[in-house]
Amino acid sequence: MKIHPMQIIETIFPNSCVICGELISPLKVLCENCEAKLMQGPIPLVERTKWCEVYFYGRYESVLKDLILAYKNGGHWRLHRILAKVLIETMRRYSTPFSALTWVPSSFKALEERGFDTMKMIARAVSKTINVRYVSLIESTSSTTKRGMKKKERIESVRGAFKTKNKPEGTIALIDDVYTTGSTIRECSKLLLQAGAEKIIAYCIAKA
């Protein structure tokens, strides 16, 4: 009986869905059921602030919440491609043109803990797919994370927590993972506009 090479790989390197634990191909990170639940966005919601318009893929709950936490805190860096996919779906839904893509950077503390800039990795994957350049425009000056902070503490924590590092030009797409109070997106958008951007369009994976 001839054995397919994939059967050998699946036996030697068993793999399970990051969300539910079901056995899946070594080439995947989610089972078909969890992926089907995930790919139900974008939600029909736009938030308009003084500095930008914000579009969302979904609510910070269920599979989407579990996916973000697994990516950020569980060490599952391969999930960046799926999270990039949901942002691309949101961008395509609203079809708002932009000339460059940037991201909300991780704090020094978060970089130390995770070993990579979570949104930069997603931005790179989005950029490659939609063929729009991604550029690092914002730098975090914070040494702490917002994990566990209350609403008022989150709002206070972003004041002076970022600075621009390159001059933005034209319309900039700004991406982030979770929109909680909106203070981070507002602060980064304001900085980019003050530095020379014409317009900011923000895309967030989830709205809390």
Protein described:
The strands form three sheets. The protein has a five-stranded mixed β-sheet with strand order 3-4-9-8-5, sandwiched between helices. A two-stranded antiparallel ribbon has the order 1-2. Strand 8 (171-179), helix 8 and strand 9 form a beta-alpha-beta unit. The chain has 208 residues and is α/β, with parallel strands linked by helices. The chain has helices at 5-12, 32-38, 62-73, 80-94, 108-114, 118-130, 151-157, 183-194; strands at residues 15-16, 23-24, 46-48, 53-59, 100-103, 138-140, 162-164, 171-179, 199-207. It is 39% helix and 20% strand. The chain contains eight helices and nine strands.
Descriptive terms for the model:
9 strands; 208 residues; 8 helices; five-stranded mixed β-sheet; alpha/beta; two-stranded antiparallel ribbon; 39% helix
